[in-house]
Protein backbone atom coordinates (compact mmCIF):
# COMPACT_ATOMS: atom_id res chain seq x y z
CA UNK A 1 0.00 0.00 0.00
CA UNK A 2 1.30 3.43 -0.91
CA UNK A 3 1.84 6.03 1.77
CA UNK A 4 -0.19 9.19 1.78
CA UNK A 5 1.29 12.57 2.56
CA UNK A 6 -0.87 14.49 5.04
CA UNK A 7 -1.39 18.20 4.53
CA UNK A 8 -3.06 18.65 7.91
CA UNK A 9 -2.31 17.36 11.40
CA UNK A 10 -4.21 14.18 12.23
CA UNK A 11 -6.25 16.06 14.85
CA UNK A 12 -7.34 18.65 12.31
CA UNK A 13 -10.98 19.10 11.42
CA UNK A 14 -10.89 18.71 7.67
CA UNK A 15 -11.62 16.59 4.64
CA UNK A 16 -10.06 17.13 1.22
CA UNK A 17 -9.28 15.53 -2.12
CA UNK A 18 -5.58 15.09 -2.89
CA UNK A 19 -4.97 15.22 -6.66
CA UNK A 20 -1.39 14.01 -6.32
CA UNK A 21 -2.51 10.92 -4.40
CA UNK A 22 -5.89 10.53 -6.11
CA UNK A 23 -7.30 10.10 -2.62
CA UNK A 24 -10.06 11.45 -0.47
CA UNK A 25 -8.72 12.27 2.99
CA UNK A 26 -11.07 12.57 5.95
CA UNK A 27 -9.38 13.30 9.25
CA UNK A 28 -10.79 11.60 12.33
CA UNK A 29 -11.71 14.83 14.09
CA UNK A 30 -13.95 15.71 11.14
CA UNK A 31 -16.09 12.64 11.74
CA UNK A 32 -17.95 14.23 14.65
CA UNK A 33 -21.38 15.87 15.02
CA UNK A 34 -22.89 17.71 13.24
CA UNK A 35 -21.07 16.18 10.24
CA UNK A 36 -21.32 12.54 11.30
CA UNK A 37 -22.66 10.50 14.19
CA UNK A 38 -23.22 6.75 14.05
CA UNK A 39 -26.44 7.24 16.02
CA UNK A 40 -27.81 9.94 13.71
CA UNK A 41 -30.61 8.92 11.35
CA UNK A 42 -29.74 8.49 7.68
CA UNK A 43 -31.05 11.90 6.49
CA UNK A 44 -28.63 13.63 8.86
CA UNK A 45 -25.55 11.57 8.00
CA UNK A 46 -26.18 11.75 4.26
CA UNK A 47 -26.64 15.54 4.54
CA UNK A 48 -23.50 15.74 6.68
CA UNK A 49 -20.68 13.40 5.77
CA UNK A 50 -22.39 12.37 2.51
CA UNK A 51 -22.34 15.92 1.17
CA UNK A 52 -18.73 16.37 2.31
CA UNK A 53 -17.56 13.20 0.57
CA UNK A 54 -19.48 14.11 -2.58
CA UNK A 55 -17.99 17.62 -2.51
CA UNK A 56 -14.43 16.35 -2.18
CA UNK A 57 -14.85 13.64 -4.83
CA UNK A 58 -16.19 16.27 -7.23
CA UNK A 59 -12.79 17.98 -6.99
CA UNK A 60 -11.31 14.95 -8.79
CA UNK A 61 -13.12 16.15 -11.92
CA UNK A 62 -13.01 19.93 -11.56
CA UNK A 63 -10.90 22.38 -13.58
CA UNK A 64 -7.76 21.31 -11.67
CA UNK A 65 -8.43 17.71 -10.70
CA UNK A 66 -9.37 16.69 -14.23
CA UNK A 67 -5.75 17.15 -15.30
CA UNK A 68 -4.55 14.35 -12.99
CA UNK A 69 -4.87 10.69 -13.84
CA UNK A 70 -5.69 7.69 -11.64
CA UNK A 71 -2.08 7.56 -10.39
CA UNK A 72 -2.11 11.23 -9.39
CA UNK A 73 0.20 12.26 -12.24
CA UNK A 74 -0.41 15.37 -14.31
CA UNK A 75 -1.91 14.14 -17.56
CA UNK A 76 -3.62 16.52 -19.94
CA UNK A 77 -4.70 13.72 -22.31
CA UNK A 78 -6.83 11.33 -20.28
CA UNK A 79 -10.04 13.37 -20.58
CA UNK A 80 -11.55 13.58 -24.06
CA UNK A 81 -11.39 17.13 -25.49
CA UNK A 82 -15.16 17.16 -26.10
CA UNK A 83 -15.82 16.30 -22.44
CA UNK A 84 -13.40 19.03 -21.27
CA UNK A 85 -15.11 21.55 -23.58
CA UNK A 86 -18.57 20.62 -22.25
CA UNK A 87 -17.30 20.96 -18.69
CA UNK A 88 -15.98 24.45 -19.45
CA UNK A 89 -19.34 25.43 -20.98
CA UNK A 90 -21.24 24.21 -17.93
CA UNK A 91 -18.71 25.81 -15.61
CA UNK A 92 -19.60 29.18 -17.16
CA UNK A 93 -23.18 28.69 -15.92
CA UNK A 94 -21.83 28.52 -12.36
CA UNK A 95 -19.56 31.52 -12.95
CA UNK A 96 -22.55 33.58 -14.12
CA UNK A 97 -24.98 32.31 -11.47
CA UNK A 98 -22.67 33.05 -8.54
CA UNK A 99 -21.30 36.22 -10.14
CA UNK A 100 -24.84 37.59 -10.35
CA UNK A 101 -25.29 37.38 -6.57
CA UNK A 102 -25.26 40.85 -5.02
CA UNK A 103 -25.14 41.56 -1.28
CA UNK A 104 -25.31 44.95 0.36
CA UNK A 105 -22.93 45.41 3.29
CA UNK A 106 -22.80 48.74 5.13
CA UNK A 107 -24.29 50.52 2.13
CA UNK A 108 -21.86 48.97 -0.35
CA UNK A 109 -23.08 46.54 -3.00
CA UNK A 110 -20.73 43.57 -3.17
CA UNK A 111 -20.62 40.66 -5.58
CA UNK A 112 -18.81 37.35 -5.82
CA UNK A 113 -16.19 36.73 -8.48
CA UNK A 114 -17.77 33.60 -9.93
CA UNK A 115 -14.56 32.66 -11.74
CA UNK A 116 -12.60 32.54 -8.49
CA UNK A 117 -15.20 30.46 -6.66
CA UNK A 118 -16.29 28.19 -9.54
CA UNK A 119 -14.51 25.00 -8.41
CA UNK A 120 -15.90 25.25 -4.88
CA UNK A 121 -19.38 26.16 -6.13
CA UNK A 122 -19.37 23.18 -8.50
CA UNK A 123 -18.15 20.89 -5.70
CA UNK A 124 -20.81 22.20 -3.30
CA UNK A 125 -23.55 21.54 -5.83
CA UNK A 126 -22.09 18.19 -6.92
CA UNK A 127 -21.71 17.01 -3.33
CA UNK A 128 -25.26 17.96 -2.44
CA UNK A 129 -26.71 16.26 -5.51
CA UNK A 130 -24.63 13.09 -5.04
CA UNK A 131 -25.53 12.78 -1.35
CA UNK A 132 -29.23 13.41 -1.94
CA UNK A 133 -29.33 10.87 -4.79
CA UNK A 134 -27.50 8.31 -2.63
CA UNK A 135 -29.99 8.96 0.17
CA UNK A 136 -32.88 8.40 -2.24
CA UNK A 137 -31.33 5.06 -3.28
CA UNK A 138 -31.01 4.07 0.38
CA UNK A 139 -34.69 4.81 0.93
CA UNK A 140 -35.60 2.29 -1.77
CA UNK A 141 -34.16 -0.51 0.36
CA UNK A 142 -36.73 -2.86 1.85
CA UNK A 143 -35.80 -2.30 5.51
CA UNK A 144 -35.38 1.46 5.44
CA UNK A 145 -36.71 2.76 8.79
CA UNK A 146 -39.14 5.66 9.07
CA UNK A 147 -37.64 8.40 11.25
CA UNK A 148 -39.79 10.16 13.81
CA UNK A 149 -38.30 12.89 16.00
CA UNK A 150 -39.89 14.81 18.82
CA UNK A 151 -40.29 18.37 17.64
CA UNK A 152 -39.69 17.39 14.00
CA UNK A 153 -42.68 15.13 13.32
CA UNK A 154 -44.06 17.49 10.71
CA UNK A 155 -41.03 16.94 8.42
CA UNK A 156 -40.46 14.05 6.03
CA UNK A 157 -37.02 12.52 5.46
CA UNK A 158 -36.24 14.72 2.47
CA UNK A 159 -37.04 17.84 4.48
CA UNK A 160 -34.90 16.55 7.36
CA UNK A 161 -32.03 16.01 4.90
CA UNK A 162 -32.14 19.65 3.80
CA UNK A 163 -32.71 21.00 7.31
CA UNK A 164 -29.58 19.19 8.48
CA UNK A 165 -27.67 20.31 5.39
CA UNK A 166 -28.50 23.92 6.24
CA UNK A 167 -27.63 23.36 9.91
CA UNK A 168 -24.19 21.89 9.19
CA UNK A 169 -23.21 24.80 6.96
UniProtKB/TrEMBL annotation:
- What start-end ranges are recorded for coiled-coil regions in this protein? none
Which is one GO molecular function term here?
metalloendopeptidase activity
GO CC terms in record: plasma membrane
The biological process GO terms on file are: protein processing
Q: Per its UniProt record, what SUPFAM superfamilies does this chain match?
A: Metalloproteases ('zincins'), catalytic domain (SSF55486)
Q: Gene3D superfamilies, alphabetically?
A: Collagenase (Catalytic Domain)
What residues does the Peptidase M13 C-terminal domain cover? 14-167
Q: What is this protein called?
A: Peptidase M13 C-terminal domain-containing protein
Q: Which organism is it from?
A: Meloidogyne incognita
Amino acid sequence: MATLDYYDPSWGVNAYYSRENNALVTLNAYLQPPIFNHDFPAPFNYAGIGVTLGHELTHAFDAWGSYYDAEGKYNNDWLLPDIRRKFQERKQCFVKQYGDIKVQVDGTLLSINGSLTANENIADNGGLIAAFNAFQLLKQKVNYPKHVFNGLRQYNDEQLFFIHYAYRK
